[in-house]
Amino acid sequence: MEPLDLLAIAPHPDDAELTCGGTLIRTADQGRRVGVLDLTAGEMGTRGSPAVRAAEAAAAAQVMGLCVRENLGLPDAGIANDDAARVRLAHRVRALRPRVVIVPASRGRHPDHARAAELARDACFLAGLARYAPGDDPPFRPFKLLHVLTYREDPVRPTFVVDITDQLPRKLAAIACYASQFAGLTQAGEVYPNGEPLADVVTHQAAHYGTRIRCRYGEPFLTDETMRVDDVTTLGVSTF
């Protein structure tokens, strides 16, 4: 398998679409190899079933233009950052070899979200250790890890925002693939309801982050490391 340029590691099917679907689509539009690794099948969800959600995830992958979509098979509502899970995830990171990995925010409404962020970071680091859980693939460590902050209102500013203005319609189409989860609902995952249809709330959130970079719609990300700038005269986003 050719290495991936971008991989989103998501706790449940539909989380990647909700939080960073626009960025995944934009990256695929740029001709890059993009994938999603869902950690669980969402079997504890009130609606749908693992089989239905798997079919919905496959349909959404087509909408987003993914090269790869896999499911790690960890327990829904029981993701743990333990050695067994780290080994399983590290092996998939070595096999997929993503340059950039998107993980959830470090805090989340669902306990699986925060645990997934911890697990993904640790597994990505451990995947680069030659003596850690050796297997069929050589050691590999991604270059960059991004936390996606969409819908979070914690007191932290995003490091950057991706313009998804052209991709928002397809992001909404990918979310709509999950009819078993969202049809007729006004809330999903980290999306808190305000009485409007879910697609409208998602659009409002994207518009909020779009204003941060003076565009129509955006998705926010956080990095632990400081971003480097080589030419300050090319910086975007007007101060005034």
What features would you describe in this structure?
The chain is an alpha/beta fold and 240 residues long. It has one domain: Rossmann fold (3-Layer(aba) Sandwich). It contains seven helices and seven strands. The protein has helices at 15-29, 50-64, 83-96, 111-126, 168-176, 179-182, 198-212; strands at 6-10, 34-40, 68-74, 100-103, 144-148, 160-163, 218-222. The longest helix has 16 residues, at 111-126. The chain is globular and about 50 Å long.
Number of helices: 7
> Briefly, what CATH class?
Alpha Beta
- Structural class computed from helices and strand pairing: alpha/beta
Tally the beta strands.
7
CATH architecture group name: 3-Layer(aba) Sandwich
CATH H level, superfamily name: LmbE-like
Strand order of the largest sheet: 3-2-1-4-5-7-6
The pLDDT mean sits at: 95
The end-to-end distance, rounded to whole angstroms, is 47 Å
Helical amount among residues, as a percent range? 25-40%
Q: What pattern of helices and strands is seen along the backbone? A: EHEHEHEHEEHHHE
Task: Work out the count of structural domains.
Answer: 1
Task: Give the key terms.
240 residues, alpha/beta, Rossmann fold, seven-stranded mixed β-sheet, 15% strand
Give the topology.
Elements: E1 6-10, H1 15-29, E2 34-40, H2 50-64, E3 68-74, H3 83-96, E4 100-103, H4 111-126, E5 144-148, E6 160-163, H5 168-176, H6 179-182, H7 198-212, E7 218-222
Parallel strand pairs: 1-2, 1-4, 2-3, 4-5
Antiparallel strand pairs: 5-7, 6-7
